[in-house]
Amino acid sequence: MPEIQAALLTDVPEGEAREFAVAGREIVLCNVEGEIYALQGMCTHEELPLDGGEVDGTELVCNWHGATFDVCTGRATGLPATKALETFATRVDDEGRIFVAFPG
């Protein structure tokens, strides 16, 4: 899978979700205790952006209707969403650059 630099570690404060456009896709990066997770940027409930959603432990809470998702797996954990978010592998290098791997 090709890796593309998405952001810097300093761009994604711990406990927050931030949206980035990477390789023509909107993704959300979440920082959970220094681990970076990448998910599709739109909620599966009503296709609204997840940017600015709250990260509570390992759950991302959509700020539109309160749907929750596991940031590690993308699984929907709370209504009104029932479908999982697509997830992407991430890597942070020694210089604090966040890389995201996209399939294909």
UniProtKB/TrEMBL annotation:
Pfam families with a match to the protein in the record:
Rieske
Task: Give one GO molecular function term.
Answer: 2 iron, 2 sulfur cluster binding
**Swiss-Prot/TrEMBL keywords:** 2Fe-2S, Iron, Iron-sulfur, Metal-binding
Domain Rieske stretches: 4-99
Please indicate which superkingdom the organism of origin belongs to.
Bacteria
Record PROSITE patterns: RIESKE
InterPro entries, alphabetized? Rieske_2Fe-2S (IPR017941), Rieske_2Fe-2S_sf (IPR036922)
Q: Where is the signal peptide?
A: none
Q: What is the designated name of this protein? A: Nitrite reductase/ring-hydroxylating ferredoxin subunit
Highest lineage ranks of the organism?
A: Bacteria, Pseudomonadati, Gemmatimonadota, Longimicrobiia, Longimicrobiales
